[in-house]
Structures are given as C-alpha cells and as structure tokens.
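Materials and Methods. Structural model of Beta-lactamase. The 258-residue sequence of Beta-lactamase from Aminobacter aganoensis was retrieved and submitted for structure prediction as follows.
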Amino acid sequence: MPASSATELVVPRPILECTLIVDAGSGAVLRRDGTCDRRVSPASTFKVPLALMGYDAGILADAHSPRWDYRPEFDAVKRDHKAVDPTIWERDSVLWFSREMTRKLGSKRFAGYVAGFAYGNGDISGNPGKKDGLTHSWLSSSLKISPDEQVGFIRRILERSLPVSTRSIDLTMAVLPPFQAGDWQVKGKTGTGWLTGKSGKIDRSRPLGWFVGWAEKGGRRIVFARLFVNDGKSPVFLGPKVRDSFLASLPELVEPAD
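The predicted structure was written out as tokens:
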C-alpha cells in the first residue's frame, strides 16, 4: 500500500510525513517515503529512552514494579487516575508516571542520559523561561528528533550499543506494547503532539503523530519510524491513528506484490 493510502486512514491533509523502514542489522533502507530528516517533538515516543534511563538508574525494577499510586497533585487526565507500573505506563502512555520518574532521576542524571544517547538535538531546556525541561522538554517543547534519528536510536537499542546495562535494554524491550501486522510481530510506541513556532509556542493547527519501533518475522528484523503532521486541527490524538494505519500497511510496505 502506498504511503499516501495509509495516511488517508488518519487525516487527509499532511504538511509533513515520513515512512522509514530499515533492516535492523545492516541499516539498509527498505522504504523511505516523505521527509525523514526534519526534527519535531518526540512526544510520548520519548517513553522508550525514559524506560532505559529508569531501569539503568534502578528507579524501575521490572515489568510490574514499582507500582505507583495516582495522587491529585499530578493533575492528570481522568483515564490516568490509577495505579501504574512500567507495563501500564508504556501501554497507556501515562504522562504523570514519566514526570515522577524524571524527578527521581534529577536534572544531572537526566541530562547525562540524553547526552549519552545522542538523542535528537539533545535540548532539554524546556519551554522558554520556565525551567521545566526535566518534566516538559519532550512534549512539544525544546527536545526534537527526526525519523532518521528515531530509527538510528532503535537500532542502537537492538544492537545493545547504548551506554546502559544490558538488563535495562532487555526490560525496556519487554515492556513496550506488542502489536501484530499480518505475520509480523511488532513492538513500538506512539506519540502525539504539535509543531512549535520559532518562539517555542505550540501551534495547535499542526498536530503530529508518531509510531516508532521494530518488527520481526521468520528471523528477519526491521526498524521503522512513521511520522505524520496534519494541516489543521485533528479531532483525535494522532499517534494511535498513525500506528493503526502503519500496521495495516506494513506487510505490503516491506513485501510489495510482484
């Protein structure tokens, strides 16, 4: 299925989009449609490097611990008023859990991990003048990453070449949500956010959706990043829509009909 057909399942007017699929081992490009080198906010795809940080630092223990209770001061959306463990955190994309974890990490360790990961532009300053980088930098703010860089980062996870323990990589891979795309077994993370202007202000007429991860079939492994930015406000969070359209098209994207 062409990339344009997949995006029709999401929203009809993209101003920026990329579908990038590479061989996990060699890095050979299997599919590259659209603009894949422009950096935007990672949004909730940043929960992948956050999990690596949490496990490596000993804040997270395994797939189901710690389990933190919701507190009113988190001021979260109603669906997230619940106890959350690492698996629930990744599956339901719970923001307050991310912020509690980065607070426990502290600014120095957080900055060290982001720099060590060579993640995107590495800018964790946050919103101008607010000194909120520890809890907001990845949310339509200062930190930005391109689809090319997302794929490179996922490949380094699979190669176990990041500066964290092997155990932290294994646990992160285990808690990421699983999906099916035909015969492909998929692990990946969505993200939803907005583009920002030169002043750093969020442009809500430019919503974006991500889906990044890897897929395996018969001993073959690929890494992917799918990004879609809409022209005009979207009535839904784009991340899950981008995920669903990508999963529907993945078998044909990787194995086109003769």
